[in-house]
Amino acid sequence: MSAREFVVLGTASQVPTRHRNHNGYLLRWDGEGILFDPGEGTQRQMLRAGVAAHDIHRICVTHFHGDHSLGLAGVIQRINLDRVPHPVTAHYPASGQKFFDRLRYATAYRETVDLREEPVARDGVLTGEAPYTLEARLLSHPVESFGYRLTEPDGRRMVPELLARHGVKGPDVGRIQRDGRLGEVTLDEVSEARPGQRFAFVMDTRLCDGVTELADGCDMLVIESTFLDEDVRLAVDHGHLTAGQAAGVAREAGVRHLVLTHFSQRYPDPSEFERQARAAGFEGELTVAADLIRVPVPKRAP
Asked: Which residues carry out catalysis?
């Protein structure tokens, strides 16, 4: 199993269909799991996808429309029922605090887990303590909505030719990586910069600055494409994107792997989303999401 993968639990917008559950997505990032937008039925989809309550370390809610949040009640009660041993942090728009409270305490249950509420009130960094930085950006939707971006710190890649040139080999390779210097040889002289991986999650929104900021340089961009391009007027009116708009953002941002999701029930053929994304000029790896698929996060850029 990939240490970094994106698990799709549901892909429907507004209402579930025979083949699509309400939204729900889990990003596995090494030893952590981030659950995004748990809509109704997420707990059952987790079971079907092999995702356990213990896999969840963070919950990130973009906004409080039901297809993105009604599953919170069940998920929160499940992590308590299973006595998840680590803290779970919940991020959500601060303006929706009353909705979070209602969902967290929708019914009676015994609280056994350290569930930490960290509502989002403005753009900025939510955490930089983990082996990544998690940021939020305001989007454009009829209710307040935030997108999320995860950035791994940049690192260094050892270059065999440079190591050989400076006579660094065997255990000394580990020493110079750890200490930054081996005698007169510095780490910079035997390595090159390795960009950290970047992942962004963009749900219900029109085109806006927040979308482009979140997508910039991402290895993987998960983004809503509720409508096809011929219904762009509906998209604008209801605060959504079309397949072509989402792909255009990814093209301009230099995204390596684009994942389209959150599809209106009006479209029976998902292949049309891929066709329109390609027509918009996106040439990278492209996945039209389906329930219960797993999408590996691309390997680090060379």
From this structure: 67
